[in-house]
Automatic annotation (TrEMBL), chain A:
The organism's place on the tree of life at top rank: Eukaryota
Keyword Amino-acid biosynthesis part of the UniProt annotation: no
The protein, known as: Multifunctional methyltransferase subunit TRM112-like protein
MF-aspect GO terms: protein heterodimerization activity
InterPro entries assigned to the protein according to its UniProt record, in alphabetical order: Trm112, Trm112-like
Localization, UniProt: Cytoplasm, Perinuclear region; Nucleus, Nucleoplasm
Species this chain originates from: Solea senegalensis
Single GO biological process annotation from the record: tRNA methylation
Family the entry assigns: Belongs to the TRM112 family.
Keyword line: Cytoplasm, Nucleus
Native organism taxonomy: Eukaryota, Metazoa, Chordata, Craniata, Vertebrata
GO CC terms in record: nucleoplasm; perinuclear region of cytoplasm
TrEMBL record, chain B:
The protein's name: Methyltransferase HEMK2
Species of origin: Solea senegalensis
Quaternary structure (record): Heterodimer; heterodimerization with TRMT112 is required for S-adenosyl-L-methionine-binding.
Keyword S-adenosyl-L-methionine: yes
Free-text function comment from the UniProt entry: Methyltransferase that can methylate proteins and, to a lower extent, arsenic. Catalytic subunit of a heterodimer with TRMT112, which monomethylates 'Lys-12' of histone H4 (H4K12me1), a modification present at the promoters of numerous genes encoding cell cycle regulators. Catalytic subunit of a heterodimer with TRMT112, which catalyzes N5-methylation of Glu residue of proteins with a Gly-Gln-Xaa-Xaa-Xaa-Arg motif. Methylates ETF1 on 'Gln-185'; ETF1 needs to be complexed to ERF3 in its GTP-bound form to be efficiently methylated.
Lineage: Eukaryota, Metazoa, Chordata, Craniata, Vertebrata
Gene Ontology molecular function terms on file: protein-glutamine N-methyltransferase activity
Length: 123, 158
């Protein structure tokens, strides 16, 4: 599970009002080399919740020196885009879980894929 | 996949940022889409079946594209049977998803839905029409006993 994907996930456990962002508890993390595509990174930046991304990167020890707030004019800043690229696409959680910040419910991550399915009584 | 291939030029011009597949199964459709649209888009593949999600991951790898599988139920269907048996008119799961489409689709976005005759495609088109989406059958074919059509929707006025 890439951090780009994590940024889009939230908990829908019944009764939960603040199910985002999910806390990451990783037991296995991999960093892969992924081809850098500046256009892709520039497109994704406006779509992500920036503080949640920085928090997730920090939880995994891969924040590098990403700023707490998004830089203006990032499209032209290749060095910045490369750092964002690494955090969005290259850091992957292979095993672990995602935890609902409100209910504490854990969603497993198995072989790199998060399982967000709820039980009947949680829907 | 035939419908996507037919629309290849349209899709490349559209250059979407995010593509979502509901019920990705083996992942072939998203992988195929990724081969047409390219690496500048994010491909999210959802499925209620964890094995399908794993398969999607492998399909992506075999085809050298990047897909993001997530095991999740977008519409509150119950269990694995939802993966292949759709209930009355084969529409139980689809019907829960249709109201969400107009909320999710971007201004220029496209929604593709595969349907068999029993699903009553004309009624699906009318139904989504009430949500502000214009649709048509962009491809139809016969496979064994099934008459399949691919329906394509976009926002009215675009």
């Amino acid at each position: 599970m890439k951090l780009l994907t994590h940024n889009m996930l939230m908990s829908h456990v019944k009764g939960v009002t603040k199910g985002y962002p999910l806390l990451i508890k990783a037991t296995e993390v991999k960093v892969n080399e992924v081809e850098f595509n500046p256009q892709f990174v520039s497109r994704m930046i406006p779509k992500v919740e920036w503080s949640a991304l920085v928090k997730a990167a920090e939880e995994l020890g891969h924040r590098q020196d990403l700023p707490a707030e998004l830089l203006a004019d990032y499209e032209k800043n290749e060095e910045f885009l490369k750092k964002v690229h690494k955090v969005l696409l290259e850091v992957e959680v292979i095993e672990g879980c995602l935890q609902c910040p409100e209910s504490g419910r854990e969603f497993p991550i198995t072989k790199g894929i998060p399982n967000m399915l709820l039980n009947e009584d949680e829907v | 996949m035939d419908a996507l291939e037919k629309d290849a030029q349209k899709l490349q011009l559209l250059s979407p940022s995010v593509c979502v597949e509901v019920g990705s199964g083996s992942g072939v459709v998203s992988a195929f889409l990724a081969s047409i649209v390219g690496p500048s888009a994010l491909y999210i593949c959802t499925d209620v079946n964890p094995e399908a999600a794993q398969c999607t991951k492998e399909t992506a790898s075999c085809n050298r594209v990047s897909l993001q599988p997530v095991v999740t139920d977008l519409v509150g269907s119950r269990g694995i049977e939802a993966a292949w048996a759709g209930g009355k008119r084969g529409r139980e799961v689809t019907d829960r998803f249709l109201p969400l489409v107009s909320q999710l689709l971007s201004a220029d976005g496209l929604f593709y839905l595969i349907a068999v005759a029993e699903n009553d495609p004309e009624e699906i088109i009318r139904s989504l029409g009430n949500y502000g989406l214009t649709g048509e059958s962009c491809l139809s074919t016969r496979a064994r006993n099934e008459r399949l059509s691919v329906l394509r929707f976009h926002r009215k006025g675009t």
